Every structure is written in C-alpha cells, then in structure tokens.
Amino acid sequence: MSLLMILLTIFLPPVAVALKEGIGVQFLINLVLTLIGWLPGVIHAFWVATRGSASTV
Fold first, then answer.
1. Is 17 in contact with 30 (CB distance < 8 Å)?
2. Prediction pTM value
3. Helix, strand, coil: what percent of the chain each, to 5?
C-alpha cells in the first residue's frame, strides 16, 4: 500500500475505497459507515485496501 493510499484511507475513506474498488457496493457501504462515524469508515477502508483483488458483488 502506498503512502498516498494510506493517507487517503485515514483522511478520506470513501475516496480511497472509490479508487480501489470503483463506485459500487463497497463505496456505498463505506460512505454510510463514514457518515455514521469516522472510525468505522476508516476500518472498512483499510479492510478494502488491504485485501487481494477487487471482488464483484
């Protein structure tokens, strides 16, 4: 994971997820989690950024 991706994951979790997965289900989940609370959005963004290849849902 690059330094830019780590910083985006911490400060703008939905943007990091959108760059990794595109605008889709994972982005919407992360957006809702970030709106509920910043920490759940960050945790989800790190999970999405560190798992293997992009999944299709």
1. yes
2. 0.84
3. 75, 0, 25
Q: What pLDDT, in 10s, does the model give residues 6-42?
A: 999 999 999 999 999 999 999 999 999 999 999 999 9
For residue 54, give the DSSP letter.
P
Interhelix angle 3-11/38-50, rounded to 10 degrees, is 150
Tell me the CA distances in angstroms from 39 to 2, 18, 26, 52, 53, one per residue in order. Answer: 20, 17, 16, 22, 24
Q: Render the burial of 11-43: b for 16+ CB within 10 Å, e for the rest.
A: ebbbebbbebbeeeebbebbbebbeeeeebbbe
The domain segmentation of the chain, as residue ranges, is 10-50
